Fold this sequence. Notes:
- This protein is of the alpha/beta class.
- It has one domain (about 1-240): 4-Layer Sandwich (Nitrilase/N-carbamoyl-D-aminoacid amidohydrolase), CATH 3.60.110.10.
- It contains 7 helices and 12 strands.
- It has helices at about 15-30, 50-55, 65-75, 155-165, 180-195, 240-250, 255; strands spanning about 1-5, 35, 80-85, 95-100, 105-110, 135-140, 145-150, 170-175, 200-205, 215-220, 225, 235-240.
- The protein has a 6-stranded mixed beta sheet with strand order 5-4-3-2-1-12. The chain has a 6-stranded mixed beta sheet with strand order 6-7-8-9-10-11, covered by helices on one side.
- β3 and β4 (about 95-100) form a beta hairpin.
- α1 packs parallel to α3.
- It starts with a strand and ends in a 22-residue tail after the last helix.
- About 45% of the residues are buried.
Amino acid sequence: MRLTLAQIATGTDKAHNLALIDAAARQARAAGADLVVFPEYAMYEKAVVDASFADAAEPLDGPFVTGLRALATELNIAVAAGVVERSDHDGRPYNTILVVGPDGGTLARYRKVHLFDSAGFRESAWIAPAPSLEPVVFTLAGTRVGLMTCYDLHFPELGRELADAGADLVLACSSWVPGTDKPEQWRVLVQARAIENSYFVAAVSQAPPVSIGRSLLAGPSGRVEGELGDAPALATFDIDPARVTATRARNPALANRRYVVGRPGPASGPAVRPASTA
């Protein structure tokens, strides 16, 4: 599969944001991409999440997503983008990654599980947490693709759940808040999720000033295979699931593990260490 990471800087003008997505998607298609990936909150973004996100929210048949569907159909490309999804059950909307297929249909929808209640921010005051903890994985161009969002990178359990669900590649759509040590944490966490699960991690972030940029792809051994700076830009990569298989054959850590959080362990061994009888 050919993948383009589209590092853009969106704001509060949804029509302008859709125009940015349109321009980047056309460049990705010209590069031969099967999938173009945009950051978290590509639909609507500002430095601090507040009540305006609920005002900006739309259902998945609203005008913004309708525009995404039309674009994907016109270009015959899959599009993944962060949207603010209206909730029918909560005054707070969802922070959602929507993947639209080349036919305009929905390939996947992931609502953010771990809201950014950290470093003085409280995303959960304005955004509803996902009602489901099930990992979201879809198939495109022979590749199994999993989804996570920004702060989810801090939680290795989700990365492992996506591995167990068959992901060859995980998209980490983000708006990584600037701050002390944040660029280093971003890079290390992306590499760590790739290393411990032996899959690709494609992490795309908003560009400054709201976020840090520095979108990157880590391969299944953890090596950074390409990285952007802080300006809006695109990067295109070829993803070969055979590399995931080969990496797991060399380092069968997933098969060797003895701890599994929240789910039954592999048939080859116990999920947890037996209690001591001493």
